[in-house]
Design a protein that fits this description.
mainly alpha
Length: 186
């Protein structure tokens, strides 16, 4: 059960953030222009790295769960410490899904704004100006895009409320999958 819920959260995060980003990108929005991977290496490398990253996370998730169950059945060295590893991965999954959901909601807001004709014209004008700036000064554009990415995504931080909600939901994900069984089965 924990594997299915974790995979669902990962796929839900992908759906919320990445799919809405591709919709905006397809509409001509320069949403990818702040991503350093997209700026430096282009579309295909960006797409390939995303596919590799998400595939790796899902495979690692199921591998860790299989290893966890095997360690408990065999009572291997440090098998009770495996709880910590699974719990940390649960927190990572919940954190990633929460962050991607928040970014997806922002993307949905941008999609809804594009239905307004005045907003759409203003957005197209800003995109056109950025394309001209990119064509005339590509190095400055790349530096500014990376700086904008750092300010918006990396430096933004995590509030205490988000931290505690992530911890609680990570714990609930952990408990949903294992209930009390590992301690009673041992």
């Amino acid at each position: 059960m924990i594997g299915a819920i974790g995979a669902f959260l990962i796929l839900f995060g992908i759906l919320m953030d990445d799919v809405t980003s591709w919709i905006l990108f397809g509409k001509g929005m320069s949403i990818m222009e702040t991503n350093p991977i997209f700026v430096h290496w282009g579309f295909w490398v960006y797409l390939f790295m995303h596919l590799i990253f998400y595939t790796f996370i899902i495979i690692t998730w199921f591998w860790m769960l299989k290893l966890y169950k095997k360690m408990y059945n065999m009572h291997g060295i440090g098998y009770k410490l495996a709880d910590v590893g699974i719990f940390m991965f649960c927190i990572f999954i919940v954190f990633m899904a929460g962050l991607k959901t928040e970014l997806g909601i922002n993307n949905f807001k941008m999609i809804v704004q594009n239905f307004d004709e005045v907003e759409l014209e203003q957005t197209k004008e800003v995109v056109k100006e950025m394309e001209e700036y990119r064509a005339t000064e590509p190095e400055k554009f790349k530096q500014q895009a990376v700086q904008s990415y750092k300010e918006d995504i990396i430096v933004q931080g995590l509030s205490y409320t988000q931290f505690w909600i992530t911890m609680i939901l990570g714990y609930l994900l952990f408990r949903v999958g294992h209930k009390v069984c590992p301690y009673e089965c041992g």
